[in-house]
Amino acid sequence: MDNCIFCKIIRKEIPKKFEYESETLVAFFDINPSADIHLLIVPKTHIGGVGDITSEHSVLLIEIYQVINKLVAENNLEDDLYRVVVNGGKAQHVPHLHFHLLGGRWKKMV
Ligand code: DGP
């Protein structure tokens, strides 16, 4: 998608340090963190949001949770507080499916 900010990040048109990258996914820190650790896990393929998920994405969804588990471990969150949040509808501001991994103390709602 030409004007999608996350597609631009994925295409590396906007410089961003990736904490994780595979053929299908990237993860990077949120620009406006809502918690001590606030990572975004983003599929490379443009899926608008939760409502656009189909059975074709079943493998991708498992990969997303595997990467979340990896990032939880890397950030020593197993025994700390962490949450995984996916916003939809008016709560979603970037219309490209993404998963928020929030660890440690919350500062505000995502
Ligand atoms: P949501 O409201 O669920 O769509 O969350 C979108 C999140 O994306 C929000 O927490 C801020 C973050 N975000 C938006 N633009 C950028 C960006 O250019 N870089 C980074 N790192 N995060 C961004």
Give me a quick take on this structure.
This protein is of the alpha+beta class and 110 residues long. The chain has two helices and five strands. 21% of the residues lie in helices and 25% in strands.
Can you characterise this structure?
The chain is of the alpha+beta class and 110 residues long. It has a single domain, classed as HIT-like (HIT family, subunit A). The protein has two helices and five strands. The longest helix is centred in the middle third of the chain and has 17 residues, at 58-74. It is globular and about 35 Å long. The site of 2'-deoxyguanosine-5'-monophosphate (DGP) has 12 residues, from strand 2. Residues 5, 28-32, 40, 87, 92-94, 110 line the site of 2'-deoxyguanosine-5'-monophosphate.
Q: Biggest β-sheet, characterized?
A: 5 strands, antiparallel
Radius of gyration: 13 Å
Find the structural class using helix and strand composition.
alpha+beta
- What molecules are bound to this protein? 2'-deoxyguanosine-5'-monophosphate
Number of strands: 5
Tally of separate helices: 2
Shape, please?
Answer: globular
Low-pLDDT runs = none
Q: Give the CATH H-level superfamily.
A: HIT-like
* Spatial strand arrangement across the major sheet: 1-2-3-5-4
Instruction: Characterize the quaternary organization of these chains.
Output: single chain
Name the CATH class: Alpha Beta
